Protein: ABC transporter permease
Organism: Promicromonospora kroppenstedtii
Amino acid sequence: MSAAVATPSARELAGPVFGSTLAGTGKLLRFMLRRDRMRIFWWALGVTLLYAGGLGEYVLLDDPAASEARSVLVSSPAMISMTGPGYGLDHYTPGAAVANEFILWLVLTLAVMSILQVVRHTRSEEESSRSELVRAGVVGRHAPSVAALLLVLIMNVIIALTSAVAVAAQDFDVAQSFAMTFAIALGALVFGAVALVAAQAYEHGRGAVGLSLAALGAAFLLRALGDVQGEHGSALSWLSPIAWVQQTRVFVDLRWWPLGLCVAAIVLLLVLAALLGSRRDFGAGLVAVRSGRADAEPTLAGPAALAWVQQRGALLWTTAGLGVMWLGSGTIIREVPNMLDAVQGNPMYAALLGSGEDMVRTFLGIFGLYIAAGAAAYGIAATLRVKGEEESGRTEIVLAAPVSRGRWLAAPLLVAFLGTVVVQITGALALWLGAASTGYDELAFGEYLELGLAYLPALAVLVGLAAALYAWLPRATGLAWVMIGYVFLVGMFADLFDLPEWARKISPFWWVGNPALADVEAARLWGLSGVAVVLLALAFAGFRRRDVPIV
């Protein structure tokens, strides 16, 4: 009796067809959209409000003297490195000012959003083993990556549409407004594709995010170095996707062809990600994981050591990235007095900036607000890592050992707050170093240090708020991110929006004021510290009483 032997067909021997590698992309995309619908809403709302509030001063830029003074400031090497090559400076209209001074920072903001979203839905899902369950169904190998990039595309398009409406509503040209916001979205999408490649390289999401942010920092540096070398940039500038967006010259001399470079880069990066993804094992990265020690060092025992190991990479990248940004920002401080002409000719600037030395200190206070907002973002992200640990199931395993809930929670919170202090103080010192590198010494080193120290109690309040939300309302931790947007809104636009006193007092930063202009009252700092202690006490009490894991 003989048995028939099945012979594989030629199609089977050739391997899966291309279409099968994308099977299930539509279903995954719908799932991602449903899962992230609130993230999409808050990102779109936040960026749109940024446009709506941030463009107010540009609409009022109609005084010839003020326009000329501002164009002189923007054409300085320091400002070129921090904004862009500058177009339309000979006739500095409000539209040209918005394009020159807004595009860079919006590209950076949406690029960070795109990076985090892509890594969240690719490498982080694979790291948590959830992708393995998904892949057990009819889902192609590249479907999660393509769905993640499509999700980021949709998010950027939604933000571009709402932002364009917000810009056009302030009497800017409609076509140019849409051109600017969609160009920014396309530039951000390039870095989403970069994150897709990075997700193939590293086994852990933290590594993929770090590599992607390093690429974003390199693009910023290349653009800055290239732009200061010649009028309207140099050949070096064209190595940066950020420069491609700025080279559209929107509101001055609109041209579309530089955006073709963005499209080409996205396609090439998508193909590269597909090739790399086909050549690695599922769950692994192309970069080999370094072998660890056979036995752990005594210093690695305990929850605090675990929290430090988990957070040190993010702390390093955040401190370095923001430090470089604030270092460059410090080089602008010596150029601030050049705006005196604008102050004398425009009542709005006079009320906002004051005059003489007060104007410099006002600018220093604005930079202090930026630095504190960056440190707050790190602090909240580091604090909410505990939620990810619990959702992954690792917290339940750790608590099964002889580790109390209070000790487990205290360790990551302590590391998160100390990391926030490092980011904050490093930012203030980088600002001083940038100013000192230009020979500006009107403000003493101690004033920069005090600027950084003054915000620490307010930062502790935000860290405590994130911890309390995690302990009592785990599904509402997004409110901590809303608070960051709120404190920034109050700090920058409270007078513009004529916010009532009670609304301003909700922001912890409001109680700090501008440390560069006036000493902060000790009672306020002690009050903020007390609020932080209460929030942390609530966090520990709430974490002790609820179930783990989250139900």
Q: What stands out?
A: The radius of gyration is 25 Å. The chain has two domains: 19-284, 301-551.
